[in-house]
Amino acid sequence: MLITHDTRCALDAVVDLVNTVPEDGTPDGLPDVAALEDFVQKHEISDVGVLSEFDLSAVRKVRARFAAIFAAPDPRSAASLINELVAAAGTTPRLTDHDGYDWHVHYFAPGASVADHLAADCGMALAFFVVAGEEERLRRCEAPDCRHAFVDLSRNRSRRYCDSRTCGNRLHVAAYRARRKEAAG
Question: How far is CA 172 from CA 124, 144, 161, 168, in A?
């Protein structure tokens, strides 16, 4: 599956956005407008003006809809959720070559809110996975104490953890210690 630069950026943004959802007592990763501004800057989201509490509330609503896509039980459900999300954003596909990047497509309308921008561009990035029959690559970490979202871009679709150096390594070390304890005892 060919993933263009702008699609990869949208995937990174949607994964990071979904992973700000408070779960099991964890704090909200988007607690205030300043955190939303940091998110926008980190992901180099273009054409965003001054952000407000209204924007924060709208992005949180979009975030919940993206989380539902990652939890969708089948492609038809994922497609329905994506269709609703993208339609509500009022997509207006247009070619652009801003900020030193080659030609790519923006799906958000000029002057769109940050929530509509995310819904359109990130929704379309996820749509490409459904169209390609690759929606199973939209996953949640299998570590019992972590449910972070990620996109499995491995060749053989075998990635199980959001980060193999933290979640994966921690589980492998625990399994190793359990085997050693069992063998010794």
Answer: 35, 13, 11, 6
Transcribe 10-48 into DSSP letters.
Answer: HHHHHHHHHTTS--TTPPPS--SHHHHHHHHHHTT--S-
Give tens-digit pLDDT for 105-120.
888 888 899 999 999 9
Tokens standing for residue 82: 């994506």
Residue 143 CA: distances (Å) to CA of 77, 137, 160: 25, 16, 8
Bridge pairing between strands 104-106 and 149-151: unpaired
**pTM for the predicted model, two decimal places:** 0.86
SS3 content of the chain, % helix, strand, coil (to 5): 55, 5, 40
- Residue 81 Cα distances to 9, 28, 68, 152, 170, angstroms: 21, 23, 8, 20, 34
CA dist 60 → 56, 114, 117, 119, 125 (Å): 6, 11, 13, 11, 19
